[in-house]
Amino acid sequence: MNTNEINYRLSRAITWLRFPLIFLIIMLHCYSVQRVEGNHDIYFKTIYPFSLWLGETGVPGFFFISGFLFFLSKKSYTQKIRTRIRTLFVPYILWNLILLSVYLATYIIGYPQDINSRNIADYNLIDYIRLFWDRGSYDNGNFVPLLCPLWYIRNLLVMSIISPILYYMIRYVREVFLITIAVWWLMTYHNAFIPQTILFFSLGSYFSIFDVNPLKIAYDKRTLFLFLFMIFGASDILVHITEGTPVNLQIHRIALIFNIPALLLLADYCTRHGHTNKLLPNAAFIVFCVHYPIVVVLRKFCISYFNNATDSIHIILYYICIIIATLSSLVIYLLLDRFFPRTKNILSGNR
Predict the structure, then answer these.
(1) Nearest in space to 233 (alpha carbons), one of 268, 257, 217, 214
(2) 3-state SS class at 115
(3) What does the pLDDT read at residue 1?
């Protein structure tokens, strides 16, 4: 396998992965945005492999790809930042502004609106500005902006800005730096957004800084990576559907790391065997931005009207919400693409 061929295959694999990674995020949010109240062990244990083992792979996967592509580009630092202002910062501001406008419009017509348990009637100018950074709570680094999933975009912008520092840390401290961040992430409880961001962006950056193709590594050692993927995946699922262990979190997070080479191999297999679709990669960014409010509405409806339902019903509702949220988001993309293409381009950063 020559260099040009494997580079081409990696490029196609990355493009193919854009929508599946978004789909994994939707699976996560259909579980996490509104939890089923009470004791529903069967429900949790049944959906765990989809909602958390796979679902939590989406954002780390995107950080890995973003770090790799950032340093793969031969543009200057200034050019890269300018590009990300157009492709990330502008959409980030606009999507949060759209959601804030919905909150304000709903409030004006007479429906009280709380954001992070605080009524917007009590907001001042600083509070409104802060919504574009966090919703009013730092939460040990797990803070999110008004449109919650866009914390990924915000953190990616920060990584881009501090990329010269990351470059020197990765270039000269090398694996010691990555291992240190990995230990920090593994030992940090709750969501650990900050160490997760730095670790996976840096992991991706490592490959491009040292001119190593991650797909080639995964493909050449595919037996090892697939073995580790299956072992840690099975371990992660087992400890969460049985009694568990004191290191549940660490097993889960190591499993997330090995999910990434497995996804690269899957994407490579699909693109080499003709399983490609132009619509889905193009729609990925819009779907990422619009799915969350849809999921919130769907899950709140399910919890309100089916709270006392059996676990079997809740499992079915979980999968129905995933399907409806995904299809609804795709419909919004298609409508924007058909009737408002210029708006769609701006909102998607010209993707």
Answers:
(1) 257
(2) strand
(3) 65
Look at residue 119 and give its three-state secondary structure: strand
**DSSP 8-class letter at 308:** T
Residue 114, strand partner residues: 119
Q: Whole-angstrom distance between the N-terminal and C-terminal Cα of the chain? A: 30
Burial class from Cβ neighbours inside 10 Å (0-12, 13-18, 19+) for residue 122 reads exposed
- Is the pTM above the cut of 0.85? yes
In total, the chain counts a number of residues equal to 351
Tens-digit pLDDT profile for residues 262-295: 999 999 999 999 888 889 999 999 999 999 999 9
| Structure token pair of residue 192 | 């650990």
Q: How far is it, in rounded angstroms, from Cα 30 to Cα 316? A: 12
User: Which residues fall within 8 angstroms of residue 42, CB to CB, at 6 or more apart?
Assistant: 311, 312, 315
Instruction: Output the average pLDDT for the chain.
Output: 95
119, β-bridge pairs: 114
Between the ranges 101-110, 114-123, 211-220, where is the mean pLDDT highest? 211-220
Does the structure show a pLDDT above 90 at 258?
yes
Answer yes or no: is pLDDT of 344 > 90: yes
Which pair of tokens denotes residue 178?
């990555």
CA distance linking residue 263 with residue 215, whole number of Å: 10
Q: Considering all CA atoms of the chain, what is the largest pairwise distance in Å, rounded to the nearest integer?
A: 64
For residues 297-321, average pLDDT = 94
Give the contacts of 146 (CB within 8 A, at least 6 positions apart). Answer: 96, 99, 100, 103, 115, 131, 132, 135
- Residue 110 pLDDT > 90: no
Query: Contact 349/285 with Cβ under 8 angstroms?
Result: yes
Angle among Cα 236, 179, 226 to the nearest 5 degrees reads 40
